[in-house]
Structures are given as C-alpha cells and as structure tokens.
Amino acid sequence: MSNNTSLGFGSGVLIGTTSAGPLQFGTLQDVSVDFSFSVKSLMGQYQFPVAVARGAGKVSGKAKFANIDGPVLNTIFFGNTPTTGQKLWSYNEGATVGAASPYTATVANAATFDENLGVAYASSGLQLTPVASSPSAGQYSVVAGVYTFSSADAGKAVLITYSYTQSVLGSKAVIGNKLMGIAPTFQIDFYQTNPNVAGAQWSLRLYSCISSKLSLGSKLEDFTIPEMDFEAFANASNNIGEVNTAI
User: Fold this and answer.
1) Taking the model in full, what pTM does it have?
2) How far is Cα 97 from Cα 78, in angstroms, rounded to an integer?
C-alpha cells in the first residue's frame, strides 16, 4: 500500500558546502544521483551462477541550475577564491568618428577600459582592421578606450565592442593551472518536500565530493543552464553519506 508521506516533488534544493561555508545552487532545474556497483558472478557447469557478489561501487550525480553564480562555480568547481568586481562587455556600442582631426571616438567606459573586442561599420556590419598606429581606410587603433580612425572614415557611424571593469558588483577569479590531483572537496545536501503533507520531506547528504565536469551551453531563444557532475567518496570515518526519509 502506498504512503503519500514519502513522496517528493519538484527539483528540490541542492547545497554544496566547502571549507568556506554553504552555497546554494540557484534556480535548480534537476538533480540526479546514481549508486552503481560492479557485480561478480561465480559460474559452474550450469547456465546460472552459483554465487553473486557485489564489487566496486560508485556514487555519481549531476545537477542543472540556471543561476550562473561566481561563488558556486569558482569555489565548488575550480577551487578559486573569487574577489568582488568583474569584467563587463559593451557590445556594439554606437559611436561616430570625429569629422576633423584626430578622427577619434571615445567609448562610454573609457575610464575603466579593459580590452578592444572589435569595430564594425554600422551601415554594413563590415569589420574594421586593428593596427598599432596610423590607420588607413577601414583600419583603426585604440589606446585606453580612445579609438583613432583614418580621415577616410571621418564622420562615419561605427559599432564598438569592448570589455571594461567595475569593482563594486559581481565576482571574479582567475582560473589557475593547478597540479594534477588537486580539486576542491565539498559536501552535497539535497532535499525535497511533499506539497500535500505538511512537514514531510526527504534528504540525501554525501559527505565528500569532487566535481568532474562543468558544462555551459547557450541556445537561441532559451536560457543557459549550467550542468555540473560530481562524484562522492568515503570521508575520514569511511562513510559515504546518509539518507533521511519521512517513513
């Protein structure tokens, strides 16, 4: 006979805890955890085994979540310490080349300019060519957010793409090239509730995990949903985790 108390519904809640503290996977889409074992069969002269034993085990899982969260990605997957601030893009920012010498256009975020990412003519979309200095027609040079063009391009409308920095919001961490074997370890906590029974829930805790894969894929007319794989292993007490259920 079924018991409605033991039901779980929805994507649940997933939290990864490192030495820096707990971090929730935001806008969780789905979570899967697989417990698998190899099985060894002892065969005799007959078609079916006379004994079966369980061999090596593996606990693996994956989570899909919509929040592209710097602390989650950096702390749990890359093992970095994020800092406040980030690089931002200004994509196809409209500008007009000066009508007189020195034929320049200054971007809106020149004070915190980071890197040039290309210039195109607004009328045709044709890309201009970057040069170190003294640009000819169809060329440009850039220093600290000030773009210089040829006199042949005077007064023309252009689209400028570049990156710039801001130090108040967001987070940033450099992805370093660590030695093999080094990976951040974290605890996974996953729980679901039963919307039809007050207080009914179940949860799974895996004491020690590492992440083996992070996927970031964009789609036309859809949201980017990062996906992170993880694998559990025994902690110092030789335990993998615990399951807590309503019955």
Assistant:
1) 0.85
2) 43
